[in-house]
Write a structure and sequence with these properties.
The complex is a heterotrimer of chains A (88), B (221) and C (226).
Chain A (H helix, E strand, L loop, with lengths): L1 H28 L14 H44 L1
Chain B lengths: L1 H24 L13 H28 L2 H32 L8 H22 L4 H25 L8 H9 L1 H43 L1
Chain C lengths: L1 H20 L1 H21 L9 H27 L2 H7 L4 H30 L8 H26 L5 H28 L5 H30 L2
Classes of the chains: A mainly alpha (88), B mainly alpha (221), C mainly alpha (226).
Chain lengths: 88, 221, 226
């Protein structure tokens, strides 16, 4: 159940993120023409980098939680199996 | 708790999917233009951090004075979430600062204090992981003292002259630009929900670990 | 009243032990002096010291030697298992904390009496233009630093990794105090002394002191219970 929940969550996040990355990217290109000519640093790449970092950080963090949970649950199963074997 | 997780996760995902559209459609800020759009996740991340710091402090105090094991688990989870959101807040702020101020980093009051808060909660996790037996109490003290410095981070921009926008930006935004105001709060709500999900998952991990420890103890007897 | 009597008794006990050997005072002083000496080798060139360095170096020396003193003080208690005995005594725990805190603060003041003139001498820093402000800054900063330090060092007596953990716990939380101390002191070093700025940092230090001492007194009891 937990695993399924996690898959659902991660898929959703990824889907959402996808839309978001595309949006941010296209969003970055449209207003470039409307920027005044004196701008030395294009802003778009900072905006995209910021949102991309958010996405990567959160996906990474969710992945670490998932990984750690899976490890603990596996240990639990292992222990249960060993105990079952010992009593028999 | 468990029943709520999936619907809330679905709702958060939908809100996350809509957030970029809302951000793209929000009006441009007059002086900073496009780069100001970082704000729509920058501010919510710091809001989420404020909430998680508060949770960590309260839970630490509850653990210390009442000895509730559950409070301790909540405190660890909140500290870890704090570090994650703080990291994003610092990085996004740095990217924004590079464009708006021309430098990646500046030791001004707000930035210094935010960096300190990140450091304190990173220390919290270090103590947790390497403190050996009894580290829970050490970490709880760290959580309480860390929470005590958090108000300084919030108020520092109002007390000292700094380059960072003041906190009053948010209170006047509702009048100056209702569209921006709506997008900011929409993103804040989304990220707060997401933070709640992360917290719930992290607490679940801590509970499973405690259950595993108990199983090991039972197996040894 | 009994509260302060207990605190004074703890202080007197620490004094009596220290006066037998002067171990902690002499090692802390030696460390602080060599710290300042190393900085002066590094920064003073051709008799010219960098303008703002003196304030920072003074506070770094105080913070580092403070960590050393804290570690040694509680190592002594741990060695004889005397802290446990002290905690078993029928006395209010916060009073014991206060006694230990007063001991550390006195020790650090003794260090500062040597280190401040030494920094002033080596870096040709005009520390003594406003002696009262300097005393206020040093006093408040030391109390704030020692308040957190005493609490954490006392907690760490039981921990296995106490040597590593003390700086990890102590420095992030006391950085605001150190920043306030450094900024306030460098305001005193400005050529017309920048009094309003120094007063601002003194106010802030007072605030930090109140917060830290209150929190420490409040959490000492549950933290020291097994």
């Amino acid at each position: 159940m937990i695993r399924r929940t996690w898959i659902a969550l991660v898929t959703f996040v990824l889907l959402g993120a996808n839309a978001f990355a595309q949006q941010a990217a296209s969003d970055g290109f449209v207003p470039m023409s409307s920027l005044p000519p004196g701008e030395e640093l294009p802003a778009a790449r900072f905006v995209v980098a910021s949102y991309a970092f958010f996405l990567m950080l959160m996906v990474f963090y969710v992945w670490t939680i998932w990984k750690r949970l899976a490890k603990v649950e596996q240990d639990m199963k292992e222990l249960g199996r060993r105990q079952g074997g010992a009593t028999r | 708790m468990k029943k709520l997780f999936v619907p809330v996760a679905a709702m958060t995902a939908l809100m996350f999917a809509y957030a970029p559209i809302a951000i793209a459609n929000a009006p441009y800020e007059s002086t900073m233009r496009l780069v100001q759009k970082i704000f729509y996740f920058h501010f919510p991340a710091w809001m989420a951090l404020t909430v998680s710091v508060t949770i960590c402090t309260v839970a630490s105090a509850l653990y210390l004075f009442k000895g509730w094991a559950k409070a301790d688990r909540i405190a660890v989870a909140a500290a870890e979430v704090t570090v994650i959101f703080g990291l994003f807040g610092l990085v996004s702020g740095s990217l924004w600062g590079r464009k708006a101020w021309g430098v990646w980093w500046q030791w001004d009051a707000r930035l210094t204090m935010a960096f300190l808060l990140e450091l304190i909660f990173f220390g919290y996790i270090l103590v947790r992981n390497y403190g050996g037996p009894g580290a829970e109490k050490l970490a709880a003290a760290m959580g309480i003292f860390g929470g005590a410095t958090a108000p300084f981070v919030y108020k520092s921009v109002d007390w000292w002259r700094t380059v960072h926008p003041k906190t009053s930006v948010m209170t006047t935004l509702g009048e100056t630009s209702p569209e921006m105001w709506f997008v900011v709060w929409f993103c804040t709500f989304t990220i707060l929900l997401f933070m709640g999900l992360l917290l719930a998952a992290r607490i679940r991990l801590e509970e499973q670990r405690a259950a595993l420890d108990e199983l090991y103890l039972a197996a040894e007897d | 009243m009994r509260f302060f009597r207990v605190a004074l008794l703890v202080l007197k006990k620490d004094f009596a032990i220290e006066l037998k050997s002067y171990e902690i005072l002499s090692t802390t002083l030696f460390f602080a002096v060599s710290c300042v000496a190393i900085f002066s080798f590094a920064f003073v060139k051709d008799g010219q010291a960098p303008v703002d360095a003196a304030a920072g170096i003074l506070w770094i020396a105080i913070a580092f030697s403070g960590t050393l003193a804290l570690g040694r003080t509680f190592e002594r208690e741990r060695y004889g298992e005397t802290l446990k005995a002290l905690l078993l005594a029928p006395a209010p725990r916060p009073a014991i904390y206060l006694g230990k805190l007063l001991g550390i603060v006195t020790l650090l003041f003794a260090t500062e009496i040597i280190v401040v003139p030494m920094v002033a001498f080596l870096f040709s820093a005009p520390f003594f233009e406003r002696p009262l402000l300097l005393v206020a800054l040093l006093g408040l900063g030391t109390v704030g630093y020692a308040a957190v330090g005493t609490l954490f060092a006392a907690m760490l007596v039981r921990a296995r990794t106490r040597d590593v953990m003390l700086p990890i716990l102590l420095y992030p939380i006391t950085i605001p105090v150190i920043i306030a101390g450094v900024r306030g002191t460098s305001a005193l070093l400005a050529s017309p002394v920048d009094e309003p700025v120094a007063m601002l940092w003194i106010g802030l230090l007072t605030f930090f002191d109140v917060v830290f001492v209150t929190l420490s007194l409040w959490t000492f009891e549950p933290l020291m219970t097994e």
